[in-house]
Each structure stands twice: as structure tokens, then as C-alpha cells.
Amino acid sequence: xxxxxxTGAGSGIGAAVxxxxxxxxxxxxxxxxxxxxxxxLVAGFPGARTLVGDLSNPDRLSWxxxxxxxxxxxDSLLHIAGVVDLGTVGxxxxxxxxxxLAVNLVAxxxxxxxxxxxLRVAHGQVIFVNSGAGxxxxxxxxxYAASKHGLKALADALREEERPNGLRVTSVxxxxxxxxxxxxxxxxxxxxxxxxRWIDPESVATTILAALDLPRDARxxxxxxxxxx
Length: 229
Hints:
Elements: E1 3-6, H1 12-23, E2 27-32, H2 35-44, E3 49-52, H3 61-66, E4 76-79, H4 94-122, E5 125-129, H5 142-162, E6 168-174, H6 180-189, H7 201-213, E7 222-225
Parallel strand pairs: 1-2, 1-4, 2-3, 4-5, 5-6, 6-7
Helix pairs in contact: 1-7, 4-5
């Protein structure tokens, strides 16, 4: 039975991936920002375990994980959590930059660093759910796109560094996906939100599971998922 650690399992793509892995009987470690959120996640995924830590404060993640029981091995680390705050370069404050860089880039780097020993034992896989914004930036998306461009660089470097240790590293670049984050984006853009226009989170989950389940004679380094409508 494979063991997976998932961030962002509470909604959207993360919830879809967690549900699929839970249904097939895999062992889940769900990352939660606090004890209350951890309790909610366990209620939704009976039998799952949780780790508690604040992704918005990466400097404290090492201390937080040191207080909790960690797995001996980890088959995959799935970075799916993310935050977005739109605005022009002329409007975005340092607070907006710091918050997005912390959650979307620095926290994944730190979690990966802390869990590499367990991933190496399993010859596991790290999957970064990036974004189309990680490949190109548009007006009002500078901070979010910068965090996701950085996430691509993190994944590319990690892939080269950990190949001798048997790790696979995959970046997934979804287009706009029907999720609470997308609803927030539309609100910030002042547009009406119609989830039927965008990718179903289950479709992105299918892509992620395909990368996870690919036989070890091959690997998927990068995959882009675009709306089909």
C-alpha cells in the first residue's frame, strides 16, 4: 500500500486526488493548517492521518513536523495547495508578494527538503501542481505567476539532483479549473463565475494519477492540461 502526503486536500484538485487515492485504499497523510482543519479532513477521509503546519509560515514547518509522528517512507509528495491574489505591479504590496511566494514556492521547497529522506527510501515521486501561469504571465498575475515560475525552477532542479536517488519529479500545469480558487479569481476580475466553462478537478486528478502510476521504466516530467471546451 502506497503512502502519499497531500497538501490542499480540502478542496478542488487536492480533494479530487485525495478521494481517488482513498477509494483505492492507499495510505493518506493530509497536510492541514491547524488542528480544526485536520479534524475536518479526517472526517472526510476516514482512516487518513494528518500533519499540521502553516504553509504561510515556512520557517516554522521544520519545528511543526518535529513535534509529530512522521512516516518511515513516503511514496509520493503532492504539492497541491496554493493561494492567489491578483493585482497590477503598481498595486501589489509586499504583503501580497510575500504571502503568495511563501505558500506557493517556499513552503513546497521546505516540505520537500524535510521529507526527502522518506522519499528516497521509497524511490518515490514529487508532484508539483503548478499552473498555466507558471509558463507565461499576464497582466495582474505578476506575483502569482512569479511564484509558479519559481515552482517550475524548483521542480526542474530537484529532478536533476534526485535522479541518482531514484526519485521522479513531475510538474502539472492546469489551465483554469473549477474550484474555490477559480471562484475567487473571477471575483477579483469582476467576472461572473461559471464552473462549467473550466476543467473539472477530476480531470486534473486523472492526469496526476497517470503520472503517479506510470511504470518505473518511464517518467512524466511536465504535463499541461487545458480546458477542452
